[in-house]
Amino acid sequence: MTAWNVADIPAQRGRTAVVTGTGGIGREIALALAAASADVIIAGRNAGKGQAAVEAVRRQVEGARVRFEALDLASLDSVDACARRLRARHEGIDLLVNNAAVMTPPQRRLSADGFELQFATNYLGHVALTAHLLPLLRARQDARVVTLSSVASRSGAIAFDDLQAQQRYRPMVAYAQSKLACLMFALELQRRSVAQGWGVASLAAHPGVARTDLLHNGAGRDSLAGRLRTHLWFLFQPAPQGALPALFAATARQAAGGEYYGPAGLGELRGAPAPARIPAQALDSVAAARLWAVSGELAGIAFPDAGGPFRSAPSPAR
Questions:
Q1: For 30, 126, 214, 308, which has the most beta carbons within 10 A of its beta carbon?
Q2: Residues 197-216: tens digit of each pLDDT
């Protein structure tokens, strides 16, 4: 694969994209899509940061069609409310980029619904958002869902007996689980889309190791990881470069459903977009189906059956 970059993004005029996350990789994805003439919705928890991201895109792209939508992925009620507003305002969505994340908070924290924060924000909230927006995605031809994983998924395992890290919380273990779950979801969504005829392509991507505030916002600037991010910044590729695999998955004509993309460099840590290695545990279709079912129960959602409409499942006791 040649060194694909933002100049290779096909024109996106007339296409609507939803990108979760107001900073770092998410903002770079939104910027590139807006520059390609897409209608971009930046969805995030912090309205101030969201508006700042919108203004930054507008400063760099004359006539950019971009706006902010409130979305707290750590609250299933917020996810549902956001999706309801989008369904009321739009007839279809062409692209959903499940990007927003939190990383390695030192102490175990819970979402509004009582789930471990990384599992809730990085994974479960995105599963629920995808389910709620599926009717809008199915309304468009060639719609895509791109879910962001991480090189950390290589060391991840799905602890079905302790998904919420109640027995023992280790920040990086919980993060790796959430990012492995994201990759497994992307692959399972593609399998289900093909089997049920949804007509939506599901892809996954990871940014390698990029210079964003994810570590500072999670582990903290004074943590070992935070200090490495601050003082060894030159080892991390710039956020625009880190956004390229997701942008390739989202827009490249040669990108295919069920594929995983990351940087082409040594260890997939930096470089131009290329097919990424899928960890063996992410290819376990039995575990993926189990995770799909458990996630639906936890989030109180259900994807449509063949030809059927979206519906909300009975909310479980949390």
A1: 30
A2: 999 999 999 999 876 555 54
